[in-house]
Amino acid sequence: MREPLFVKQNAQKWTSFEQEPTNDPDELADRFIQITDDLAYAKTFYPKSKTTAYLNGLAAGLHQSIYKNKSEKSNRFLTFWKYELPLLFKTYQKQLLYAFLFFMVFCFIGALSAKYDENFVRLIMGDQYVDMTNANIMKGDPFGVYKNGSETLMFFGIAVNNIYVSLITFVSGIIFTVGSVYYLFRNGIMLGSFQYYFFSKGLGAKSILVIWIHGTLEISAIIIAGAAGIILGNSLLFPKTYKRMVSLKRGAKDGMKVAIGIIPILIVAAFFEGFVTRHTEMPIWLSITILASSLLFIIWYVIIYPNKIYKATQTYHAIQS
């Protein structure tokens, strides 16, 4: 694209960014990403033009505004989930991948064990739960367990339990990473055998439409908690160029941020389990919509958005250097 046309297409946007400043963190982030994209394009095709110099100054101003706002206590809460946590996901993407792969392998082991040992599900889930579920299946209400008790009490109980499990999964990483992998093993084996149980009863598709309404966020958060524990454990095992204690403090700090950062996801998952999952006869399209929205959110927030923020930050620093 020729430079005059490039300027014509974007001049109004640039002028509005310059003449209409904002302190809204979301708007600042959006403006910064747009300007760095334009600046990267200009730097590539018009490296010595006045347009490039102008965009460089505009990007610098937006960058300063973002970090100025980040230093304000009132915005610290928001910027943690807007910038800091996603960038941690990007920094520790290998640990997230390892936790995911561990969990999937353990799920497969659980399903395989349940297939070849009819007592395995009882060993993992307990006789009481299996007998109750078998009775519910006979009554034509296989997921009746989610309808028991008060919605509000169930929500609070599940939320507290899930947060506890996730924090334990993280903290256990101090045992040379093995502790967190063990909790991924426990949860993976349980999920694999649990899911196979329903498939063996001819209720596989139905179980996905019901259980994964809350399970998508809940299981994703447990995997992320496992990754936080791996961050902690690896900082002790593999200090790299840092002194071991310095590396451990750094790993503990970053791992704790990740573990705390997923608490809102666990709360939403508990809300779904307490108030939504119990409606097992909801329309299929609604169940799929909730499930798919949860999955897309996890993919976007943990993978896509962190890469976008990282790319924008790297572009800015590369241009400045």
TrEMBL record:
The keyword Transmembrane applies. The keyword Protease does not apply. Pfam families: SpoIIM. The chain crosses the membrane at residues 96-116, 163-184, 196-213, 219-238, 258-276, 282-304. InterPro entries: SpoIIM-like (IPR002798). Keywords: Membrane, Transmembrane, Transmembrane helix. Signal peptide: none annotated. This is Membrane protein SpoIIM required for sporulation. It comes from Mucilaginibacter lappiensis. The lineage of its organism: Bacteria, Pseudomonadati, Bacteroidota, Sphingobacteriia, Sphingobacteriales.
